[in-house]
């Protein structure tokens, strides 16, 4: 029996998990969950104690813990409360409802995607210019680097207000903030990638008397792809952050950032956490999508490791 | 129409002049001309900005001219200074120091356990990519409106990028070097202090540099969720409400200068600490 178990697929999977990533990650996640529950009990305890003192009731320990985990507006909602809030937001509402996380998530996602497309395109075009023109390299690159020391998100509220005063509201202002944030990682990664071909490879192209265009399409562009995808992943995550921050000021009424802000105004902690987890899931989804495209592209190009 | 056309000519002239000068200078490619080219590009952009705003009479609400921003900067230095102290010195810097220290200590603590490393690194990488700014409203609720809540946001924002870099750095020594330490019978403490910490420094500074801007962003954005009546985030949101755009831009200028200095300072310390690394010797 034990021998059969020792050779069984379950144990083998377990061993592989311990050597690989699954088991350690699950362990850490479990630890986080436990810490979270303990913290939720601890942080909500004061409120429950005050309530009990006010109504002059003596609480048994299980009842006390039970109350800390089921508060309406907890200081720290327990994981299952967040899950319930998420479920209600995702599936419990009509998709068009103002209380649906699908609606708000889509508002954020559409602006993120539009901004990411603009930003990464601008980054790629500028990178191509920089690689081909020394004057452009020396003029633009230092300022592109310096522009990143500006906390761009600080400009977000201003961009929103400026566009609103010009009569432009909705998706575009948010998308521009997202574009500005995703532009830099793509620019840097693409410049680095376009410069990876070494002198030997460039010489070989020259000995075949390849034109500049051919060098670009046949050598530089393909060898920049791994760098490009690495920076696209950074850029899309940054674009999402930019969109969410763009939704904070000027009283935007839709999007995950607006959910965060209204949750903080009315002390709806569960709403904040649910919006936060939706944003996290969106970020993970976006990065995973780009990883998938990366794998497909690199495999097709014979570059996959 | 003719007015607009007449306005375009000097703008194009300045642009073409600056560009021609740069194209000519770029050919020399020395240290001096590189700085010159970057400076000329920056100055050209500012001059063009001023010209476009003046010639086309762009409303201040949409885009103030650099001159107006400079005037507002000079007129509001007292306000800008209190905001700087509140947001950047108290909020961002404190939070960054605490977060970096916590991340380094955590990295050393999990360094001895490959199991924990394998478990924590994917999660750390994942969390580092999440929109962590979103926790700002929660932390403002927990820690109050003053700078402590901003520092807390910054701590959480900078923790994971530094942690991931530091863990990778501590694992960056090769087997030969570790074996050498073992043949000298070096205890864990000695091999950590003499070999692994120095080897981790380039990775650590990479994380520290990335997080300098994150720290400023965290501190400013957290102020949108509630702040005392000073601070850069507070000033930006109220000045935008009053359409005092020159003041907003002056705050942004402060943030940009502070961000550049902060990054430069960390890069300078990096240079001193990791002088032996190939990337610094080039």
UniProtKB/TrEMBL annotation, chain A:
<feature type="transmembrane region" description="Helical">
    <location>
        <begin position="270"/>
        <end position="293"/>
    </location>
</feature>
<feature type="transmembrane region" description="Helical">
    <location>
        <begin position="227"/>
        <end position="250"/>
    </location>
</feature>
<comment type="similarity">
    <text>Belongs to the binding-protein-dependent transport system permease family.</text>
</comment>
<keyword id="KW-0813">Transport</keyword>
<keyword id="KW-1003">Cell membrane</keyword>
<dbReference type="InterPro" id="IPR035906">
    <property type="entry name" value="MetI-like_sf"/>
</dbReference>
<dbReference type="InterPro" id="IPR000515">
    <property type="entry name" value="MetI-like"/>
</dbReference>
<feature type="transmembrane region" description="Helical">
    <location>
        <begin position="21"/>
        <end position="39"/>
    </location>
</feature>
<feature type="transmembrane region" description="Helical">
    <location>
        <begin position="143"/>
        <end position="165"/>
    </location>
</feature>
<keyword id="KW-0472">Membrane</keyword>
<keyword id="KW-1133">Transmembrane helix</keyword>
<keyword id="KW-0812">Transmembrane</keyword>
<feature type="transmembrane region" description="Helical">
    <location>
        <begin position="171"/>
        <end position="191"/>
    </location>
</feature>
<feature type="domain" description="ABC transmembrane type-1">
    <location>
        <begin position="105"/>
        <end position="294"/>
    </location>
</feature>
<dbReference type="Pfam" id="PF00528">
    <property type="entry name" value="BPD_transp_1"/>
</dbReference>
<protein>
    <submittedName>
        <fullName>ABC transporter permease</fullName>
    </submittedName>
</protein>
<feature type="transmembrane region" description="Helical">
    <location>
        <begin position="106"/>
        <end position="131"/>
    </location>
</feature>
UniProtKB/TrEMBL annotation, chain B:
<keyword id="KW-1003">Cell membrane</keyword>
<keyword id="KW-0472">Membrane</keyword>
<feature type="transmembrane region" description="Helical">
    <location>
        <begin position="123"/>
        <end position="145"/>
    </location>
</feature>
<protein>
    <submittedName>
        <fullName>ABC transporter permease</fullName>
    </submittedName>
</protein>
<keyword id="KW-1133">Transmembrane helix</keyword>
<dbReference type="InterPro" id="IPR000515">
    <property type="entry name" value="MetI-like"/>
</dbReference>
<feature type="transmembrane region" description="Helical">
    <location>
        <begin position="30"/>
        <end position="49"/>
    </location>
</feature>
<feature type="transmembrane region" description="Helical">
    <location>
        <begin position="203"/>
        <end position="227"/>
    </location>
</feature>
<feature type="domain" description="ABC transmembrane type-1">
    <location>
        <begin position="101"/>
        <end position="274"/>
    </location>
</feature>
<keyword id="KW-0812">Transmembrane</keyword>
<dbReference type="Pfam" id="PF00528">
    <property type="entry name" value="BPD_transp_1"/>
</dbReference>
<feature type="transmembrane region" description="Helical">
    <location>
        <begin position="247"/>
        <end position="269"/>
    </location>
</feature>
<feature type="transmembrane region" description="Helical">
    <location>
        <begin position="93"/>
        <end position="111"/>
    </location>
</feature>
<keyword id="KW-0813">Transport</keyword>
<feature type="transmembrane region" description="Helical">
    <location>
        <begin position="151"/>
        <end position="172"/>
    </location>
</feature>
<dbReference type="InterPro" id="IPR035906">
    <property type="entry name" value="MetI-like_sf"/>
</dbReference>
């Amino acid at each position: 029996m034990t021998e059969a178990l020792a050779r069984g697929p379950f144990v083998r999977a377990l061993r592989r998990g311990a050597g690989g990533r699954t088991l350690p990650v699950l362990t850490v996640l479990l630890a986080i969950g436990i810490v979270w529950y303990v913290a939720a009990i601890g942080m909500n305890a004061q409120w429950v104690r005050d309530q009990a003192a006010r109504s002059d009731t003596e609480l048994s320990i299980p009842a006390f813990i039970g109350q800390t985990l089921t508060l309406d507006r907890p200081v720290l909602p327990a994981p299952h409360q967040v899950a319930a809030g998420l479920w209600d937001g995702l599936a419990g509402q009509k998709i068009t409802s103002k209380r649906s996380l699908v609606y708000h998530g889509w508002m954020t996602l559409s602006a993120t995607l539009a901004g990411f497309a603009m930003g990464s395109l601008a980054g790629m075009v500028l990178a191509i210019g920089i690689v081909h023109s020394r004057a452009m390299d020396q003029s633009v690159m230092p300022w592109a680097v310096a522009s990143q020391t500006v906390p761009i998100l600080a400009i977000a509220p201003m961009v929103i207000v400026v566009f609103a005063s010009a009569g432009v509201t909705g998706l575009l202002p948010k998308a521009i903030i997202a574009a500005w944030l995703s532009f830099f990682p793509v620019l840097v990664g693409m410049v680095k990638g376009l410069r990876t071909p070494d002198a030997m490879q460039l010489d070989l192209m020259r000995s075949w008397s390849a034109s500049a265009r051919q060098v670009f399409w046949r050598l530089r562009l393909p060898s920049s792809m791994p760098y490009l995808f690495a920076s696209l992943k950074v850029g899309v995550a940054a674009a999402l952050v930019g969109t969410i921050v763009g939704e904070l000021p000027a009283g935007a009424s839709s999007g995950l950032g607006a959910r965060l802000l209204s949750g903080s105004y009315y002390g709806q902690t569960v709403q904040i956490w649910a919006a936060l987890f939706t944003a996290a899931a969106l970020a993970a989804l976006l990065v995973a999508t780009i990883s998938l495209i990366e794998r497909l592209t690199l495999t097709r190009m014979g570059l996959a490791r | 129409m003719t007015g607009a056309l007449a306005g375009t000519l000097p703008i194009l002239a300045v642009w073409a002049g600056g560009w021609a000068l740069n194209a000519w200078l770029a050919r020399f490619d020395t240290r001096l001309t590189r700085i010159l080219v970057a400076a000329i590009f920056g100055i050209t952009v500012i001059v063009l900005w001023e010209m476009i705003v003046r010639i086309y009479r762009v409303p201040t609400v949409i885009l103030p001219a650099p001159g107006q921003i400079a005037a507002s900067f000079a007129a509001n230095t007292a306000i800008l200074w209190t905001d700087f102290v509140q947001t950047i010195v108290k909020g961002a810097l404190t939070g960054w120091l605490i977060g970096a220290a916590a991340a380094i200590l955590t990295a050393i603590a999990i360094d001895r356990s490959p199991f924990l490393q394998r478990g924590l690194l994917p999660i750390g990488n994942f969390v580092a990519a999440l929109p962590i700014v979103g926790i700002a409203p929660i932390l403002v609720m927990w820690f109050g409106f003053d700078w402590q809540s901003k520092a807390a946001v910054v701590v959480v924002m900078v923790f994971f990028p530094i942690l991931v870099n530091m863990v990778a750095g501590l694992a960056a020594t090769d087997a030969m070097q570790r074996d050498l330490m073992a043949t000298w019978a070096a205890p864990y403490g000695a091999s950590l202090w003499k070999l692994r910490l120095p080897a981790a420094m380039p990775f650590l500074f990479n994380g520290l540099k990335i997080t300098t801007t994150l720290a400023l962003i965290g501190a400013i954005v957290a102020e949108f969720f509630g702040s005392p009546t000073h601070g850069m985030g507070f000033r930006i949101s109220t000045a935008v409400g009053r359409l005092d755009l020159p003041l907003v831009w002056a705050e942004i200028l402060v943030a940009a200068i502070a961000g550049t200095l902060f990054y430069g300072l960390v890069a300078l310390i990096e240079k001193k600490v990791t002088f032996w690394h190939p990337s610094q010797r080039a």
